[in-house]
Design brief:
The complex is a heterodimer of chains A (479) and B (185). With 479 residues, chain A is mostly helical. Chain A has 18 helices and no strands. Chain A has helices at 3-16, 28-40, 46-72, 87-111, 121-142, 149-153, 169-202, 206-215, 223-256, 268-294, 303-333, 337-348, 352-364, 372-375, 378-404, 420-443, 449-453, 467-478. Chain A starts with a helix and ends with a helix. Chain B is of the alpha+beta class. In chain B, helix 4 runs antiparallel to helix 5. Classes of the chains: A mainly alpha (479), B alpha+beta (185). Chains A and B meet through helix 2, helix 7, helix 9, helix 17 and helix 18 of A and helix 2, strand 2, helix 3, helix 4 and helix 5 of B.
């Protein structure tokens, strides 16, 4: 973040947008107090307790479901032959996709110098971390014996002399997702350090002060430190950008490298990445709309943020819809009996309801936000973001189940029906995600305080044009 | 701390001046550097690029370390795939060559990013001398209170050859500092 350009951009932006990225009248102190008080002196709104309670119940359901799974094996799920991948992979891809918006906001929008990312990047990144945690659970528990997954997945010298198969997209996935989770955590923590120092300095309780002090690493806002910090932050953003694109690309390879009709398509990588961003922005909206209201953060997450996110959702939704059209086109154009049958079966077969629900959720409903009136209607946007999340879940259901349940040989055809444990595990991860998210807004600043400070007029550096400045920079820059 | 500095300025880490806004801090930092002070630092609650330029506080080792980390990850990642697939556990899959390099690219790429990211984070943390649980600047109560919120501070350390308790304090006063404090060690 270049304060000079932010400041200049801020004025330019105020002329063209009816809503600023931060409401006028804020100072360094008011920004700091408003955000850090939620953590340090927060009284939490009643809805926080209600949602947290429900989420915590679901989380307990997850514990039971996973416990039962480990005891009985994956036979408790509806998976069968030929549908060997079902809810576990649907949910894995769904969660990973949701995480992508966090990295997009924090990294790609930083590189594009979009100042509206500043007040939403922190909790979008937290969302990424928690979504990746939920996602990682599924392939692990899908093995049935996750304690053995260590030598199936990770290259380490073991007494059996066995090594992973590096030509398999499933191993690429292990590397992609674990790198993604690690780098997202590093990026998030780096962004948090200056704010942890603020919390340390503002905390009244000695234990809380020590805790934040330890986490803040002794940060003191030195210009030398800021210089290294900003370089590292920018480089992390630069690395996260190709990383996030690679992760969903690799996830799509899990499918497209296989020869299953409905999976073996070159459109998959870009179509999956767009779907990930689309689902992720929907989840950011689902979280941001209630949280900004409950915690009174409307000054920092303004209508401008909401509207921009809705627009990104609309654009990526159109790309996803184009993906559906191309899938249908390729089914016909391939002139391949199996590919043609796959697409006809998707539209008219036993799972046709899921395909048409998908088209309704992801193809039709997002078109409503072409209208500015609906785009700025928070209630509608919240409902739409839930519809989109359902749509993206159905997309993975359609891709995975309808492609697998009609195998090449009609003798292998079978139907897939999820069981109670499939649903309890899935809703359990929603509970896990929501629990972590709600704990996060209580324990850490949900908006990046130091970055919002740079948007305040006080933070502007007003240097008169001084011809000696350049001489100064050159003479000292040279040695 | 050199023996000379201790003799000249016992007991203190340096002098700290507070400025009312980022602009005056940048100007003061620039003048201090022009005056010949080198063991100095400026503090702000958010990054100010002009400040970094004002006393040339750039550290290009971060970029270099990230490059080195990325290259290590790249060669390490490809080397791992190559060694496992050709030497440690060669598998003949449909007659494909053991060194089927295109399928090693995803792992190579991910490890490049992973190592570079660790290099970036370790660089900004360790090159800045963090984690550092104690630092003398926090002995100034005003600093401990507002530095991470709205304070703009400039410090000149006692170890600087040009440092002199009285003359340096006068110099800082001349720059329009709001308040000047000695930093106890």
């Amino acid at each position: 973040m270049d304060p000079k350009s932010t400041a200049a951009g801020g004025t330019a932006v105020a002329e063209y947008h009816e809503h600023p990225v931060i409401e006028p009248g804020h100072t360094l102190t008011s920004v700091t107090e408003k955000i850090s008080n939620v953590v340090l002196r927060g009284r939490h709104p009643i809805p926080w307790y209600i949602v947290f309670f429900i989420a915590f119940l679901l989380l307990n359901g997850l514990m039971v479901s996973v416990g039962w799974l480990l005891l009985k094996g994956i036979g408790i799920w509806g998976n069968n032959q030929p549908v060997g991948w079902a809810f576990d992979i649907i949910n894995f891809v769904w969660w990973i996709g949701i995480g992508h918006a966090g990295t997009l906001i924090s990294a790609i929008l930083l590189l594009l110098k979009q100042d509206w990312r500043t007040s939403i990047n922190r909790f979008a990144e937290a969302m990424t971390l928690f979504a990746v945690a939920c996602a990682l659970m599924f392939p692990l528990i899908h093995t049935g014996r996750p304690w053995l997954a260590a030598y199936w997945l990770l290259p380490y010298p073991n007494t059996m002399g066995i090594w992973p198969q590096f030509r398999s997209p499933l191993i690429w996935d292990v590397f992609a997702v674990s790198t993604y989770g690690t780098v997202s955590a590093l990026f998030w923590y780096t962004g948090l350090v200056p704010d942890l120092a603020t919390l340390r300095d503002r905390a009244k309780n000695i234990h809380i002060r020590r805790l934040f002090g330890a986490l803040a690493l002794g940060w003191r806002g030195s210009a030398r430190h800021w210089a290294r910090y900003e370089t590292a932050y920018l480089l992390l953003a630069g690395m996260s950008t190709p990383l996030v694109l690679s992760v969903h690309t690799v996830v799509s390879f899990d499918f497209s490298i296989g020869i299953v009709p409905g999976w073996h398509a070159t459109i998959f990588p870009p179509y999956f990445v767009a779907g990930a961003v689309y689902a992720g922005f929907a989840m950011v909206l689902t979280l941001a709309i209630p949280l900004r209201k409950w915690y009174g953060m409307e000054d920092f997450i303004t209508m401008r943020h909401i509207e921009n996110m809705a627009k990104v959702m609309l654009v990526t939704g159109l790309i996803v819809f184009y993906g559906y059209l191309i899938e249908a086109f390729f089914g016909w154009y391939s002139a391949n009996e199996y590919e043609k049958y796959m697409i006809v079966n998707r539209m008219t077969g036993p799972y046709a309801w899921s395909y048409w629900c998908l088209i309704f959720c992801n193809g039709l409903m997002p078109q409503t936000i072409w209208s500015k009136k609906l785009r700025t209607n928070l209630t509608w946007l919240f409902i739409l973001s839930l519809i989109v999340s359902v749509g993206m879940w159905l997309e993975r259901f359609v891709i995975i189940v309808t492609s697998l349940h009609r195998d090449f040989l009609p003798s292998s055809w079978d139907m897939y029906y999820p069981t109670f444990w499939d649903f309890s595990t899935f809703f359990g991860t929603i509970g896990l995600f929501t629990t972590l998210m709600f704990l996060f807004v209580r324990l850490l600043p949900m908006i990046s305080i130091f970055e919002v400070r740079t948007l305040v007029p006080e933070a502007k550096v007003k240097l008169k044009h001084d011809p000696t400045v350049d001489d100064f920079d050159v003479s000292y820059g040279a040695d | 701390m050199s023996a000379h500095a201790i003799a000249a300025t016992p007991e203190i880490y340096g002098l700290m001046a507070e400025f009312p806004d980022p602009t005056s801090l940048v100007l003061a930092t620039r003048k201090t550097h022009e005056e010949g002070y080198r063991n100095m630092d400026a503090y702000s609650p958010f990054p100010i690029h002009e400040l970094v330029d004002a006393f040339d506080a750039h550290d290009h080792r971060v970029q270099r370390n990230v490059l080195v980390g990325g290259l290590l990850g790249m060669f390490g990642g490809f080397g791992l795939c190559y060694w496992v697939s050709t030497t440690a556990y060669p598998l003949n899959i449909g007659g494909r060559p053991f060194n089927s390099w295109p399928s090693f690219i995803p792992v190579t790429f991910e490890l490049t990013i992973l190592f570079a990211a660790f290099a970036a984070v370790l660089s900004w943390v360790l090159l800045s001398g963090l984690p550092m649980p104690y630092h003398p600047v926090f002995n100034v109560p005003r600093f401990a209170e507002i530095a991470s919120e709205k304070g703009f501070f400039l410090t000149i350390e006692a170890t600087d050859p040009k440092f002199d308790r009285l003359r340096t304090a006068d110099f800082l006063k001349g720059l329009g500092a709001r308040d000047i404090n000695e930093i106890p060690n």
